[in-house]
């Protein structure tokens, strides 16, 4: 197993299930993870929440949830799902709570992705 | 003399005239007065009728009681309907109403009506047993004293039925109490769960730390890894239990119906339990009795969960050297269904009577159990939910220090002999290798990562892939293509500009030979049935949840493109 994949496993990413889904193509999985660094949905979600455009926020949270599920970022997926629920139910207290943890998780994953995307890694 | 006679006769004539006129006047007056009184009587009678009609049709009761005569002067005609006591009986004995109420009220009413005459309005609530319906009703009794020259001569009594209000109040009180209890239970659960969750996490962290300190000691590291594995599994079970409980609340727990051999299932189950029992130095025994119908349809995953919950408790609460038994029998058969009984018994620590009553309530545990054995208190509530979902029943009997017996009855449908089991269908699918090389799919997905994953998943099937990054592009491509160019459209639901629902609707409305018949499969990260229902209503044929599993997608495509009779796995 690639050392970069191991770093993802260490932070709780469900690597194996996604690699299996991709027919064992670990290299493809890593390249998709790198692509996630350039995905805008988290940024767009935060902007939508700040400007209180909850319809747009719902769409971005939904997309983020889907991508997280596709890449095995289980915690991010669960937090996105909770946030989506909060937006739909207009539970703003819970929304703030979940968004804080979602942001933490997003940056935690991104930090590792940036590390493994470094050519020296 | 003649003059006097004339005058006399004239006077007499006048008097007669006057008398005649007077009589006539009196006669006319009498007729007039009679008519007037008759009219007044009719008006009074009419008003009385109106009042009686009012009183008959409302539920409030009115009485007028003369204090001097001790008699009821008026009673509304609805007492029979509302109190179950006829107005005639009440007229004869005004206090008969209070024979059906509490003794305290009877004494109080006697006092008010005979000794301590009220000078102010009086009001009290009381309960009364309706002698006709034998139902307890709540009443409010209001007494208004009527004064005549500063002396109370009458009481006007109004009796109203408060039963519905009291019942509503009781419901609200109960709801409040339940909410308070639920809140308490949640608080307890959270404090209990935080401990339950932290314990295995601490184990994982602790063991990982120890392992890192003994990297050269293979045995130590191996021991740490085993403990990490056990703690992680415990944590996963706990989380799964919590999720199952929330699924039950959100009604998204669904059963599958797959063919299986119950004896084979039980032998496999038993072999796993036996291993665990041997480690605990306990004896586990499986008895299968009188099973006529071995090939059934059911959810083996959930059946496994039900039996595992019960047997795990038996293993947990039976001391070393103890016995645990699982007995399975076919009780009866009706048509194509058979009733099976599963009995799990042990000679362990047992449960108190009080606890058996609460065993299926989430988070409830005997105090000493929680302290000594831990656990979430969710196992049995989940088990009951699953048994109920399967149309079955569960009973528990137990005695402290003697042991526990759990009896579960479940009805299964008997599978037809030619029904194929999943394993066979899966093997067939593997043999087929899903060769879609002669077919073309249009994938509509706005996100690059998701698109790349789907394309990669589909690659082994050799299907020709065309893509569109949004609904508008998809619509354009479909509009401009020849008939039968695309065999299937795989479309994301959440897209900007034109979402999946709108795109599907637009495709169906196109003047294209395939617009009505092209199969559209929606993809969405929402797994709720609601979105699937909306998808199907919006001209979408199938719905698949992200992340898309290879086997799910391939078997669906096979069903759509090649063989509609193919079962979706």
UniProtKB/TrEMBL annotation, chain A:
Q: Which domain of life is it from?
A: Bacteria
Q: Which GO terms describe its biological process?
A: phosphorelay signal transduction system
What name does the UniProt record give this protein? Hpt domain-containing protein
Protein's organism: Mobilitalea sibirica
Organism classification, top ranks? Answer: Bacteria, Bacillati, Bacillota, Clostridia, Lachnospirales
TrEMBL record, chain B:
| Gene Ontology CC terms | plasma membrane
Q: Which residues carry this modification: 4-aspartylphosphate?
A: 492
Instruction: For this UniProt record, give its keywords in alphabetical order, as a comma-separated list.
Output: Kinase, Membrane, Phosphoprotein, Transferase, Transmembrane, Transmembrane helix, Two-component regulatory system
Is the Transferase keyword given for this protein? yes
Please give the SUPFAM superfamilies that the UniProt record associates with this protein.
ATPase domain of HSP90 chaperone/DNA topoisomerase II/histidine kinase, CheY-like, Homodimeric domain of signal transducing histidine kinase, PYP-like sensor domain (PAS domain)
Q: Which reaction does it catalyse?
A: ATP + protein L-histidine = ADP + protein N-phospho-L-histidine
| Protein function | May play the central regulatory role in sporulation. It may be an element of the effector pathway responsible for the activation of sporulation genes in response to nutritional stress. Spo0A may act in concert with spo0H (a sigma factor) to control the expression of some genes that are critical to the sporulation process.
User: Protein name, please?
Assistant: Stage 0 sporulation protein A homolog
Specify the species.
Answer: Mobilitalea sibirica
